[in-house]
Amino acid sequence: MDIKTFKPRKLEIPVTEIEQASFCRLDDNLRSKTLEEEFKSGVKWQKVPIRYLKMKPDEIDSEIIKMKSMIGDKLFILGHHYQREEVIKFADTTGDSFKLSLEASKVKNAEYIVFCGVHFMAETADILTTSNQKVILPNMAAGCSMADMASAEDVEDAWKFVEENFDDFIPITYMNSTASIKSLCGKNGGMVCTSSNAKASFEQYLPKGKKIFFFPDQHLGRNTALSLGVKKDEVKVWNPFKENGGLTLDELNKTKVLVWQGHCSVHTRFNIDQIEEAKSKGANVIVHPECTNEVVSQADYVGSTEYIIDVVNDAEPGTKWGVGTEINLVKRLASQNPDKEIFCLDPIVCPCATMYRIHPAYLLWVLDGIAAGLVINQVDVDFEKKVNSKIALERMLNLPK
Ligand code: 13P
Ligand code: SF4
């Protein structure tokens, strides 16, 4: 990418990020309304047949129960912890990204795997399941604003530039990325990681004198690097809107961990004032590593969604917890631990707008399809990408525990 060929792209805010902001509100009533009513807030979700628009949540509930028992063992539903209550209650297993990818690789009997989560998770499940199994995402518009910040084309250009100029960079991608990026990592000696094993993945390369190019979450990349003793000025951000990421060759030469300029619109809402407020009430503060380094360094505990659940569940009765992660999970934790005081650090309620796109009506729609012999919304990664992404995912699954 030299000066003659570089064409700066217009800085565009992903639609999902705009929708995220319009979802924030003051009341914490997260109960589902009819799909028709939810559509009124101007969301750009997948269209469904008219009958699903008007169905009341209770009606949908009893239909889902009927369909689940009608389809039986051929069906397995995976649910990420950030899903709405009305959806996650139908999951055969729940988990964070890492646990769900493990579960997907182990479910051998089910012909239909319905993934209540977001698109990159369904792609991962498709890569890790057999060719006879079909992975279904109830609403195809359920993406991830962070994954949208790293287009395959931009990442390929950036990797090409780095690879042409240096021979010691290794690409690692966060699970929250497209199969094309996972495939690029698999092809080039790198791997996938999740927030549960980012540290272990970096430890595979840094001690051998390798440098890391991490996609697409700058915060998880920076937090992981700093936790392993990499200095602040050895972490640089690749800005895809600038020529050569906005960096000189000399700067890249001095870099140990290069992080893509991406972020999670849910976890970057947490800030120092909220932490101070929580601590002033005597609360312990626990946050996800997609938060900024400023927040992570002031928190008492930092870890993946599954880690947060374990720490809070195991805490002493009577303790107080200010939690920096997605609101659906925080509310669930609070209701499952009535002997503790658990609250979200952010007083404004902002569910992850893309996880939220799995309204129960979509779940019912795809189950009705299966019962009628129709596969609606299959996520099918193409063969070449599957082969190389699988290499990158297996490197992650084989990381030392
Ligand atoms: P984990 O599921 O790895 O904790 O990641 C959180 C997240 O943001 C999922 O999109
Ligand atoms: Fe993406 Fe953040 Fe939502 Fe996870 S919580 S799906 S990273 S926007």
Descriptive account of the structure:
The protein is of the alpha/beta class. It folds into three domains: 15-143 and 354-382, NadA-like (Rossmann fold, 3-Layer(aba) Sandwich), CATH 3.40.50; 147-265, 3-Layer(aba) Sandwich (Rossmann fold); 267-344, 3-Layer(aba) Sandwich (Rossmann fold). It is built from 19 helices and 13 strands. The strands form three sheets. The protein has a five-stranded parallel beta sheet with strand order 6-5-7-9-8, sandwiched between helices. Helix 7 (119-128) crosses helix 19. The model has no long low-confidence stretch (mean pLDDT 93). The structure holds 1,3-dihydroxyacetonephosphate and iron/sulfur cluster.
- How much helical structure, as a percent, in the residues? 40-55%
The fraction of residues assigned to DSSP E strands is 5-15%
For the record, the CATH architecture of the largest domain stands as 3-Layer(aba) Sandwich
> How many strand units?
13
Strand arrangement, largest sheet? 6-5-7-9-8
* Radius of gyration, CA atoms, in whole angstroms: 21 Å
Q: How many domains, as an integer?
A: 3
Uncertain runs are none
Q: What's the CATH topology name of the largest domain?
A: Rossmann fold
